[in-house]
Design brief:
InterPro entries: AAA+_ATPase, ABC1_TM_dom, ABC1_TM_sf, ABC_transporter-like_ATP-bd, ABC_transporter-like_CS, P-loop_NTPase, Type_1_exporter. Belongs to the ABC transporter superfamily. GO terms for molecular function: ABC-type oligopeptide transporter activity; ATP binding; ATP hydrolysis activity. It is a multi-pass membrane protein. This protein is elongated. Among the domains are: about 325 residues, ABC transporter type 1, transmembrane domain (ABC transporter transmembrane region fold); about 70 residues, Rossmann fold. With about 600 residues, it is an alpha/beta fold. Helix content is about 65%, strand content about 10%. The structure holds adenosine-5'-triphosphate. Adenosine-5'-triphosphate (ATP) binds next to helix 13.
Length: about 600
């Protein structure tokens, strides 16, 4: 059962890697050629030792005269072959790993949101820091050795058989012992390696969370707990590595013993043959020198098998990612021109997250184009999910979203996403300068456009006052900026994308009322000459009271819809929320959106 499983894995591993190996077939061809050079050199050197010993015993200086330069030539060929072998193996291994890791990376970039949220960052990291490097066993020296060993075994056996068949036959008896122990070791190592890789992934997750939750850990005095958790994980990893070492240790002890016993037996019986005149001293030297090559391919083959198990369990983990469906055939890209939106409709949408009951059940909504639409509702009502569905991060189980009358299922991911510019609740900035963070929005943006958007987002003056202006580094995830500054940069980035639909999810929540008003005013001016539909999710209801349409949601359902004055007159969630907020003194803005322009 286990054996079958392993053969299946071997097939899977090679079928996944085959295209990458074939891409570098010239280098692999060169390495394969060197396999035969190495076999020829092994036989030639052993023959050389025997020949020069016999020549010395018989004082045959004539023979030695041409044997010495031949020996030098063999050394030169051996040096050249070692150099080329090292170089070509490095090229082959690293080129395959480079191409394959890019493939895995691109695949992850295309995994649909639903599957992606189920993945752990530590697992994902360890695919690249650990698993891909563990593939060496099947693409580098492991693969070459697997190809080389049967040939070297056959060549040496035939050569030794010609020297003395009785001795050759004797050394073959070690074969089954070495092979069986190798296969058992391989299977044991495989399970252990899987545990090690899982543990490394858990450590990566812990490291990720620790460094990202740096201030939370300090504030909650969690240092001891986290340190203990890290130490416990490291201890478990240490124990797993130790049992790996024990397994490998026993295996090498066994291999050494097999090799030494074969060597000693050949030497003893061979010496007996020499004393009987059946074998020359030189031939015995050749024999004991070569007999090692009869034992080591078998133990080595088993060792390579163990290495292969490590690669197979790494491949098993990577394949789980590669088996995930992709949302598009190629990486999406931004279209050259601004798309036009004439209608947006969500029709009969039913959607639930993995393992949860339906959040939306036959949900319908027509979004008026060129207007400002506000979505309000209690936490967990499904407002953010609506944004994710519009952008195709998640797919509804039934129903469809129609853009310009076409269901989004008939659009490419690039087409669907180019309709929207999104400022999400959690702002993500990338390491690099402010300029780099803004210019990711679209290709070919000018400095003037960048500053215009920064101005509209109310962040230009702040940036201009910095010693390095737009070239200031923002730190990892924008750590060197305040929450409000990050939000304003994200708004500027979204404005620069110049998409026909702007999705603002609590995008000004970190701003004070004064700044919020200024940002909205400047945004209106910037957007006044573009047809833009703005959909806002806001908890501060005063900020959306002038919206063209207010959609009130509760548990995935629309419970009220209309203009502020209209729905305030009805009994329902909206007037209740407004009353609650005014009782609590949530600031209300007299000058909110002028909805005629955006
Ligand atoms: N990735 C996810 N996997 C599983 N459930 C999710 C996921 N994201 C959201 N949910 C659940 O879906 C529901 C709606 O979440 P959503 O974020 O859309 O609400 P929301 O109205 O935007 O809330 P808030 O105002 O608090 O941001 C919640 O019950 C939430 O727990």
């Amino acid at each position: 059962m286990l054996g079958m499983l392993t053969l299946k894995d071997a097939r899977r591993t090679y079928s996944v890697l085959k295209p990458y190996v074939l891409q570098h077939r010239k280098v692999y061809g060169g390495l394969f050629f060197l396999v035969f050079v190495e076999i020829a050199l092994t036989l030639a050197f052993s023959w050389f030792f025997g020949a020069i010993t016999d020549a010395a015993i018989h004082s045959s200086f004539e023979r030695m005269k041409w044997l010495v330069p031949l020996g030098a030539a063999l050394v030169l060929i051996s040096v050249a072959s070692t150099y080329l072998n090292t170089l070509w193996e490095t090229i082959a291994t690293n080129a395959v790993k480079r191409d394959f890791s890019s493939h895995v990376f691109n695949h992850i970039l295309q995994v649909p949101g639903k599957q992606f949220t189920g993945l752990h960052s530590g697992d994902l990291m360890s695919h690249f820091t650990n698993d891909i490097h563990n593939l060496d066993g099947v693409i580098g020296s492991g693969l070459i050795q697997l190809m080389k060993l049967p040939f070297i075994y056959a060549a040496v056996f035939i050569y030794l058989w010609q020297l003395n068949w009785q001795l050759a036959l004797l050394s073959v008896f070690v074969a089954p012992v070495a092979m069986v122990s190798g296969v058992i070791l391989g299977l044991l190592l495989r399970t252990n390696n899987r545990f090690i890789q899982e543990r490394v992934a858990q450590i990566n997750t812990l490291l990720n969370e620790t460094f990202h939750g740096f201030f939370v850990i300090r504030s909650f005095l969690m240092e001891r707990t986290i340190a203990a958790k890290y130490a416990a994980n490291q201890q478990q990893l240490y124990e797993l590595e130790l049992s790996n070492a024990r397994l490998r240790g026993w295996f090498y002890v066994g291999s050494q013993a097999a090799a030494s016993i074969t060597f000693l037996l050949s030497l003893c019986i061979g010496s007996y043959f020499v004393s009987g005149g059946i074998l020359t001293v030189g031939a015995l030297l050749t024999f004991v020198n070569l007999v090692h090559h009869l034992v080591y391919p078998l133990t080595e083959l088993a060792g390579q098998w163990a290495g292969f198990q490590k690669s197979a369990s790494a491949m098993e983990r990577i394949c789980k990612i590669l088996e995930m469906e992709k949302e598009s055939d190629s990486l999406p890209s931004m279209p050259a021109s601004r798309p036009v939106v004439t209608s947006i409709q969500l029709k009969d949408i039913t959607f639930s997250y993995e393992g949860k009951s339906s959040l939306f059940d036959h949900f319908n909504l027509q979004i008026p184009v060129g207007k400002v639409v506000a979505i309000v509702g209690l936490s967990g009502a499904g407002k953010t999910t609506l944004f994710h569905l519009l952008q195709g991060f998640y797919k509804p189980q039934s129903g469809a979203i129609f853009m310009n009358g076409r269901p989004t299922t008939t659009l490419t991911i690039s087409e669907q996403r180019s309709f929207f510019a999104h400022v999400s609740q959690e702002i993500t900035l990338f390491s690099g300068s402010i300029r780099e963070n803004l210019l990711v929005a679209r290709q070919g943006l000018t400095d003037v456009q960048m500053m215009e958007a920064a101005e509209a987002a109310g962040i230009h003056d702040f940036i201009a006052a910095l010693p390095q202006g737009y070239d200031t580094e923002v730190g990892e995830k924008g750590a060197k900026l305040s929450g409000g500054q990050r939000q304003r940069l994200a708004i500027a980035r979204a404005l620069l994308k110049d998409a026909p639909v702007l999705l603002l999810d609590e995008s000004t929540s970190a701003l004070d009322s004064e700044t919020e008003y200024q940002v909205k005013d400047a945004m209106q001016k910037l957007l006044s000459n573009r047809t833009t539909t703005t959909i806002i999710i806001a908890h501060r209801l005063s900020t959306i009271r002038d919206a063209d349409l207010i959609v009130v949601m509760d548990k995935g359902k629309i419970v009220q819809m209309g203009h502020h004055d209209e729905i305030m007159k009805q009994e329902g969630l909206y007037p209740r929320l407004i009353r609650l907020q005014s009782q609590r003194g949530v600031p209300s803005l007299d000058n909110s959106f002028d909805t005629s322009v955006i």
